[in-house]
């Protein structure tokens, strides 16, 4: 059933791409961080799409070797020259302030100010994105062009109207119950401010996957997490340690909105079912792709794949973090991501889920010589209907490989036939009691 529903969905991806891009556009202006009202506002908008459960974890809560930090909020920030003109203004771009800057209101010389300024000399029109979560400090990020206009003789007024106080860490969770308690985890960090590819594209694909899956009858249960990077997954894992035993497969989604080739980073296990399926889907997508081995740097897969958990969670991306110049700059904006790129990412993720849902292992119930297919209407019975006809070769492959060792995916790979064709043959054989699910 799900296979057909998903196929129909594939034809709707253009519309889905536009809707995902619209969500990115709504979330773009918000100044998010690992805690605070920007994160809450983001979850509130996501709630218009899926019924998220919002969790609040108090500052100071110990989570493994970490502590939930103070909550950060910001109202305004600027640098004024002596004429009173704002030469750097938080209202123009929330990237102008180093994320988690402590409050400051001070007049200072350019020399003093310079130690708090960050620019990108190689890209003089772009604003860098910088954070200081775990060390109390403050700073401004500006274009190198703005920086070059600063005057040695000036006295600058610096204001950051922020607060760093006892509060909460906020995250969103959405659970879709399937027919089994075994879970698929879909996780994305949601803590970056106005950055589209690194952050908003992953959120958007996750939201629309969740919305779509919630309408289907599913084998697995699905858990979607919208969390602040690192501290969010550490917190969730610490508070849900027993629950992690149910997680059989997972994907971290990020950087899925740019025009680069697909990249799948394998789980630490390296040959988990999700790793094999993701590679199979990309290899058959007709698109450029790369599969890379796990390494302990990147996003929340670092925590899910830490040795105490070692979950089968891979990371699905287009261009990986750090591999494109727009990464962590103001150029990772609404022009950099495109509806067709997020739509394409959504389609590949759905294909992965489609195979996960259907990748069963069967045992041939008539394994000594081939069963007589003709008398069961499984052979030459539906000739001429090329589209709908059962593929007889697929039937023979399934019967031959259904020795309990081959999953349907392994059969598809060995036979060189499409997973859907193999699955259809298996379902027909199952109806005739020629196969039994293991
Ligand atoms: Zn990032």
Distance between the termini: 20 Å
CATH homologous superfamily title of the largest domain:
Zn peptidases
CATH architecture of the largest domain: 3-Layer(aba) Sandwich
Number of domains: 3
Provide the residue-averaged pLDDT.
95
Strand tally, please? 19
Class inferred from helices and paired strands: alpha/beta
Taken as a percent bin, the fraction of beta residues is 15-25%
Low-pLDDT stretches: none
Using the alpha-carbon principal axes, give the shape: elongated
Task: Provide an overview of this structure.
The protein has 438 residues and is α/β, with parallel strands linked by helices. It has 3 domains: 2-68 and 168-358, Zn peptidases (Aminopeptidase, 3-Layer(aba) Sandwich), CATH 3.40.630; 71-165, Domain of unknown function DUF2172 (Glucose Oxidase, domain 1), CATH 3.50.30; 361-437, Arc Repressor Mutant, subunit A (Orthogonal Bundle), CATH 1.10.10.10. It has 13 helices and 19 strands. Strand 2 (62-63) and strand 3 form a beta hairpin. The structure holds zinc ion. Zinc ion binds next to loops. Zinc ion binds at residues 192, 198, 321, 328.
């Amino acid at each position: 059933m799900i296979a057909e529903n998903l196929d129909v969905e594939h034809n709707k991806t253009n519309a889905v791409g536009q809707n995902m891009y619209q969500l990115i556009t709504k979330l773009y202006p918000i100044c998010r961080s690992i805690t605070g009202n920007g994160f809450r506002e983001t979850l509130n908008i996501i709630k218009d799409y899926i019924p998220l459960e919002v969790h609040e974890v108090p500052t100071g809560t110990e989570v493994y070797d970490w502590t939930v930090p103070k909550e950060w909020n910001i109202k305004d920030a600027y640098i004024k020259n002596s004429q009173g003109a704002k030469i750097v203004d938080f209202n123009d771009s929330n990237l102008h302030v180093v994320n988690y800057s402590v409050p400051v209101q001070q007049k200072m010389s350019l020399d003093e100010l310079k130690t708090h300024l960050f620019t990108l000399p190689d890209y003089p029109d772009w604003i860098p994105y910088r954070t200081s979560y775990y060390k109390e400090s403050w700073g401004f990020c500006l274009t190198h062009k703005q920086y070059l206009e600063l005057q040695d003789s000036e006295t600058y007024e610096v204001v950051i109207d922020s607060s760093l106080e006892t509060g909460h860490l906020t995250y969103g969770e959405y659970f879709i119950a399937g027919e089994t308690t075994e879970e698929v985890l879909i996780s994305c960090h949601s803590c970056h401010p106005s950055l589209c590819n690194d952050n908003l594209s992953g959120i958007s694909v996750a939201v629309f996957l969740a919305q779509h899956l919630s309408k289907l009858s599913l084998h697995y249960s699905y858990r979607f997490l919208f969390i602040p990077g690192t501290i969010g997954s550490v917190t969730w894992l610490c508070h849900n340690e027993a629950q992690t035993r149910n997680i059989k497969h997972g994907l971290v989604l990020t950087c899925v909105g740019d025009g680069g080739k697909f990249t799948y980073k394998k789980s630490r296990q390296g040959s988990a079912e999700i790793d094999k399926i993701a590679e199979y889907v990309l290899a058959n997508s007709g698109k450029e792709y790369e599969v890379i081995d796990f390494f302990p740097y990147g996003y929340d897969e670092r925590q899910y794949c830490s040795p105490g958990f070692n979950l089968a969670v891979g990371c699905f991306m287009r261009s990986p973090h750090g591999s494109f110049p727009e990464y962590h700059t103001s150029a990772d904006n609404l022009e950099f991501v495109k509806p067709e790129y997020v739509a394409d990412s959504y389609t590949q993720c759905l294909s992965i889920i489609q195979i996960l849902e259907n990748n069963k292992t069967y045992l041939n119930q008539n394994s000594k010589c081939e069963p007589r297919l003709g008398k069961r209407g499984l052979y030459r019975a539906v000739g001429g209907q090329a589209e709908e006809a059962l593929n007889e070769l697929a039937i023979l492959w399934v019967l031959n490989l259904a020795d309990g060792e081959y999953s349907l995916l392994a059969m598809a790979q060995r036979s060189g036939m499409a997973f859907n064709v193999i699955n259809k043959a298996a379902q027909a054989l199952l109806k005739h009691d020629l196969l039994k699910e293991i």
